[in-house]
Description:
- The protein has one domain (about 1-75).
- Helices cover about 30% and strands about 35% of the residues.
- It has one helix spanning about 1-25, and strands at about 30-35, 35-40, 50-55, 60-65, 70-75.
Amino acid sequence: xxRKLTQTLAGxxxxxxxxxxxxxxxxxxxxxxxGKNCTMAxxxxxxxxxxMVPGAKGGDKLDCTDKDDGTxxxxxxxxxxx
Length: 82
């Protein structure tokens, strides 16, 4: 009984971790730039995060990637032409 409950709880926590990283990566846009680089990014909730994204300007969409050491990397999203 306890083993089954532990497995269910561990699965729920793992799912929450995955969903939270996807939610963060989904809605990032450049909020402020210094003319050459994006310096502040805003997520879908309106929270601003200090970043350094070369070549990104205000309003550009950003791609975010989790690294193994727990940090995030940001780069300007590439739009594909049809």
